Structures are given as C-alpha cells and as structure tokens.
Amino acid sequence: MGDHDIPGLTAIEAEAPEPPSDSTAPRPRRMLLNMGPQHPSTHGVLRLQLELDGENIVSAQPDIGYLHTGIEKEFEVKNYQQDVTLTDRIDYLAPLSNNLCYCLAVEKLLGLEIPPMAQWQRVLLTELTRLNSHLVWLGTHAIDIGAMSVFLYCFREREDILRIFEMYSSQRMMTSYFRIGGLALEPPRGWQKRIKDFIDVFPSRVDEYEELLTNNRIWINRTRGVGILPLEDMLDLGVTGPMLRAAGLSWDTRKTEPYSSYEKFDFEIPTRSETDVYARYLVRIEEMRQSTRIITQALEGMPSGRWTADAPHVVLPDREKMKTQMEALIYHFKIVTEGFNVPAGEVYQVIESPRGEVGYYVVSDGTAKPYRVHVRGPSFGNLQAVPEMVQGTLIADVIAGIGSMDFVLGDADR
Amino acid sequence: MISDELNSFPVVTGLEIAIPSALRGGKYDRQEVTLEIAPEGIVDVCLYLKIQQKFVRLSTVTAVDWYPEEPRFEVVYHLHCIERNERLRLKCRLSSQNPEIDSVTSVWRGANWYEREVFDLFGIRFRNHPDLRRIMLPDDWQGHPLRKDYPVTGSRV
Question: N or C: which end of chain B has fewer CB within 10 A?
C-alpha cells in the first residue's frame, strides 16, 4: 500500500493580530472557534471550524469523517442480500429510502420484474419514511432555533410511524424491509387500518405545526433572509433535494426519473423562490402534505398479488413450500449458503430521499458479492455548501442555516 | 470503436467532433451511457460537457480498483443534465504506478470533496486540487482502505 506524505491538519490560519502601531487604532480581533464535533445543533458529529470577527463569520470549514465506518468496504465482503442491512445504517433517519435505492440498483442488474403490490408497498413505506425524516428535521430544527414545543409534537407523530414500521418488519428503525426481489415479508394483517388511522389525523397535525411556526414572528425573524445561497452555486456544489426546490428548481427524481411506479401517483413538487431557511421550511411542510396524498392513493389503490418477484434463484421460497418441495429446499439452501450470482455490469440508480438525491453505484463481476458499491449520499453533497452559505453571516445564523440543510452525518461519512 | 447504438446519442457525437482524441470507447448498457475518456483529456471533456452540453451537475466521483489488472484504477464520474433529464458516466483508467489525474474542481466546485474521498480511500492523486488531504480517515492513517489489497480483518503488525 502506497504511503503518501499527508500534510498535517491544516487549521485555518487566522491572521495573527498585528501589534497596534498606535494605541488608538482598532485592533483586528479574529477568533477561531470549534463548533462540534459534540455540538447539539450539528445533529451527529460534525466539526465546524469557524473564524470569527466578533459575531461575524469570516470563514467556515466543515470537518467530517467522525462517523466513517467503512460501509463501502463492508459491502464487498457480504453477499448481495446481506448488504441490504448495511444500507439501513447509512442514513439512519431514512433507512427505507436507502433500502429501496440499493434494491432497485441490484434488481436492474438482475433484470428482475417486481410485482405491482410490492412496488406500491415500497412507495407507501418510503413516503412514510419521508414523513418520519421530515418530522425529525422539523422538531430538531425548531429546537435549535428555540421553539421547544414543536419537537414534542413532531416526535408524537414520529412514534406512530415507527410503530407502523415495527408492525411491518418488527424493527423500528433499521427495518431492512425491502429485499432484492420485493419485500421481506407479507404486509402484516391489518396494515390498512393502521395506516388509515394515521393518515386521517396527520394533515391536522401538520396544521398544528404550522400554527406554531408559520406565522410566528420569532420564527420568521430567525429564518427569513437567512442562509441564502443562489441556485447556480448550489448546483455547482452538488446540493440536492428540498434546498434546490426552495430555490425555485422544480426537480424531483420521483417525477423526472420515476422508479417503483411513482409515475402512477398524482402529486406535486412544491417549490419556493426565496432560497432562504424559511422557504426550505415551507417546502418541507408542503412535501409532508404531498406525501400524505401519495400514501392515501397507495392505500386506496393497492394492487393485490405477490410481494416478491417470481425468481426462485433470488427470492427465498415460502416456508411451507420449503418443507414440502425438494426444489424449493434446494433453492433455499443455495440462497442461504452462497447467495446468488449477479450478472456482470454496472448500474447507477438514483432516487429521491427526504434529503435529496441518493445514488447507488453498484459494480458486479458476476459473483455473489458486489465488486464495488459506492453510495452518493445527499448529506455529503449538501455539507459542501456550508462554507459558502454561512460566510459573512452571524454566528446565530449558522445554526439556522445548517439546520435547514437537514443532513445526517451517517449519510455523509458512511 | 464507438458503436452505432452510442452514436445515436447527440452527446456522444458532439463529443466525438469536439474532442476526438479524448474519447477512447464506451458502451450502452441497461439504459446507461458510459464513455471511456483518456485521463489527460478529462478536464477538457468535462468543460465541454458542462458548458456545451449543459451537464450542470456532477452527481458523484468515485473509483473502482481492478487489482491485479492493469491499468488498475478506474475513476468514475456521474454527470447529470437537468434540462434534458440525462445522465452520463465517464471513466478514466489509471495505472498502479502513479495513479494521478487532473482535478475537475475547476469545472464543478462540488468535485472537491468527492476527489478528496477518492484520494483518501484509494490513494489516487488529483493534480491542481485546491485542498487535497484526507477527508474520512485521520490524517496519520496508513494505507487506503478501498483498495482491493487492503485487508478487511486482522491487526497491524
């Protein structure tokens, strides 16, 4: 392994205060402040090196990698189906979105046809994930800015969503419910009622959050005109998701590159043109309402049928069949012991996660383990824009600004 | 060298006319266009694609290690044109002797961290990069974990 000479940690070199030539001249006073890695408003372990002139930010340098766990390396030593569990842990607030993107990529390599019922269940659950993620974002973002009570409301609804996930997969967060070839299990008995109960009350809950914030003068003063970043800069820096939509770009991969039957659903892409923190808040609130619409449609129009593809070499057979049919038993044994081979090739699958564009680049060499998996996490791209966004603003606006980006450090560091 | 199927894409024909020396090959597989680019021409190609072909977004930069094959490394760029809703993959092969390629940060500023990540995990150097240092691992880390000859288990001797 080559060993390169790595330059040491280059801290921002603050200009050394020059000795005053005469005692009356104002002395330039710069301060280097470390925000994080253990700062509550950075949601995980992000370190921001801020160079301050009084309360003004001269420059900011994000330092990431504290949550790096080598997930991309680990993908290469597990077989395709085992790797689904790793995708949960990348963006732990939107595990199902990552499950879906990875499964779609591998299914594209395999050329699998997923039955409509599984596709619609996938849409339904990823939209619930979007609500889950946006609720965590709204609650923590509000707490950062000083509105404590919103957090409690948001987590009340989030609890309902986590219970639905638990009902489906017996896991609250790391569900791994989407598998290559469909779903892990048949949707549980009574899922329609649980989701209907939730979706019936949820729009009124969103009204409640809006009542607390949308016209709240403190909220508006803290967020309007703050964290502005022009659209061209954001595109250049790799920012995706609600941040772009709050800058007026109506781009959502659910519409432009539909996957998993999204083209059959009727919903709108909310956009704003202000590009500030307040606009991002309004976009996400509207996205929650649109997700509710999608979930309602999925609930009403859910097709019947199998929840897994007709591919015995990929999908585990039913328990009953495995016990009674020799062929099913052989397939079961082969899938469990050695996995399944995936045709050689490469695929870059992109979906819209709550945070923006998630991309899975999967390279197969024809064996049962991926040769290489690269994850394009939206948080990684969004974080790159931090220095440009906060430069020249006040230190209090940094909290509002990075809060409006809605990043998850697990997604950035992998 | 370029198949007829690929030539049906205006991007490919445009690139062939504009910078013929840089295009080494390509394929159309699973509805995805992949072009192989000569490493020394990557910045020109990217500039052309961004300005003339409106690939305003660089979705990601990554690498694949084909150890023990030579040229060993493959740097992979995923481009996206929002206007035409089109994606494109560029690839450059680099030898294991001196894995070095020009940085595309002058084309998209967003390439900065992606290239740092590739440098960190694969040990591929990017010329003219404004801030080439490790991003995920500590600065004093030995080796580059995503290389295929980097072990997954075991302890350092």
Answer: C
Would you state the pLDDT for residue A410?
Answer: 85
Rg of chain A over all Cα atoms, to the nearest angstrom: 23
| Distance from C-alpha of A196 to C-alpha of A185, rounded to nearest angstrom | 20
Interface check for B112 against chain A (CB to CB < 8 A): the answer is yes
* Per-residue pLDDT tens digits for B18-37: 888 888 888 888 888 999 99
pTM of the full predicted structure?
Answer: 0.89
For residue B67, the chain A residue with the least C-alpha distance is A371
3-state secondary structure of B79: strand
pLDDT digits (tens, 9 = 90+) for B72-122: 999 999 999 998 889 999 999 999 888 999 999 999 999 999 999 999 999
Q: What ipTM was reported for this prediction? A: 0.92
Q: How many CB atoms lie within 10 A of CB B17?
A: 8
Closest CA to A408 of A92, A61, A8: A92
The one-letter amino acid code at A289 reads R
- All domains of chain A in start order, with CATH: 71-413 (1.10.645.10)
Report how far residue A305's alpha carbon sits from residue A48's, in angstroms, rounded to the nearest whole number: 51
B115, two tokens: 């290239």
**Residue A78 burial class via C-beta count within 10 angstroms: exposed 0-12, middle 13-18, buried 19 and up:** middle
- Helix or strand holding residue A121 (H, E): helix A116-145
**Cβ atoms of residues A335 and A313 within 8 Å:** yes
CA separation (Å) from A375 to A71, A190, A196?
A: 9, 35, 34
Q: Chain A: give the shortest CA distance to residue B60, in Å.
A: 6
Strands A56-63 and A47-53: antiparallel
Q: Which domains does chain B have, with CATH numbers?
A: 4-127 (3.30.460.80)
CA distance A115 to chain B (A): 20
Q: Test A413 with B136 for CB contact under 8 angstroms.
A: yes
Query: In this structure, what token pair is assigned to residue A325?
Result: 């049919």
Ordered alpha helix ranges (H), B35-134: 42-51, 111-122
Range A328-336 average pLDDT: 91
For residue A310, give both structure tokens: 């007709």
pLDDT band at residue A286 under the 50/70/90 scheme: very high
